[in-house]
Write a structure and sequence with these properties.
This protein has 236 residues and is of the alpha/beta class. Helix content is 33%, strand content 19%. It binds 6-phosphogluconic acid. 6-phosphogluconic acid binds next to helix 2 and strand 4.
């Protein structure tokens, strides 16, 4: 596990973007034809996508061999700016245009409730046995990751891709990968900034298994990027 503490959110977004581009380039240089990345929502993840979009044109990466997946998505209309893929689409630029993008289904309004379960099942089928090279996760102040919330039904729902209802973080309905899939990732990357994340980050880094973030890890590596505010409760 690595923990990198940087001055502020901008520095975190830049560091994550540079490492992501380096990792994808290294995988392709090693002969890997297909690279699988799982993205998430949230402010610092979206800021990281903007940096990736800005830096990508200067890198020798074949984006047509890169698959973009999501670890969670809000169950809202496809054109809603509340969607997690909305921030990725606007920030990633040429990466979005050239990569193989596997968006989670959107609520088309026809079956707002039963459609959610069908959408989760559809994404499970699309995902198949895919193993992510990198699964990027934000961190909630309560220690949630993706749409897995501590003490909430989402933590106990069996399966690999699940429907989440009555989410403590709006909007209420979501689709989420479970830890079964997240922890199959070769690398899990956490990004968190702001003092409101300090307690959750410290608990997760101490392996507090009362939190979904405390139970998430890569099969090979787990990397954390924090700004100084979010690192404020770490044991020094
Ligand atoms: C979502 C995200 C969620 C997010 C964290 C951190 O759907 O909201 O997937 O898991 O990553 O809540 O969000 P912030 O970085 O905006 O605090």
């Amino acid at each position: 596990m690595t923990v990198e503490v940087l001055a502020d959110a901008e520095a975190v977004a830049d560091a994550v973007a540079v490492r992501l581009l380096d990792r994808v380039a290294a995988l392709q240089a090693s002969g890997r034809r297909e690279v699988h990345l799982a993205l998430t929502g949230g402010t610092i993840a979206t800021a990281s996508y903007e940096r990736v979009g800005a830096l990508a044109p200067g890198r020798e990466i074949n984006w047509s061999g890169v698959h973009l997946w999501w670890s969670d998505e809000r169950w809202v209309a496809a054109d809603s700016d509340e969607r997690n893929d909305h921030g990725a689409r606007s920030g990633l630029g040429v990466v979005w245009e050239q990569a193989r993008v596997h968006q989670m289904p959107a609520d088309d309004g026809v079956n707002p409730d039963s459609g959610l379960d069908a959408a989760a099942a559809d994404y499970d089928r699309e995902l198949g046995e895919t193993i992510f090279d990198i699964c990027l996760l934000g961190l909630g102040p309560d220690g949630h990751i993706a749409s897995l919330f501590p003490g909430h039904a989402s933590e106990r729902t069996p399966g690999r891709v699940i429907a989440v209802r009555q989410s403590p973080k709006p909007p209420p309905s979501r689709i989420s990968l479970t830890l079964e899939v997240i922890n199959n990732s070769v690398e899990v990357w956490f990004v968190a900034t702001g003092a409101e994340k300090a307690d959750a980050a410290a608990r997760a880094l101490n392996g507090d298994d009362a939190l979904p973030s405390g139970r998430a890890h890569g099969s090979s590596r787990t990397n954390w990027w924090l700004d100084e505010a979010a690192a404020g409760h770490l044991d020094t």
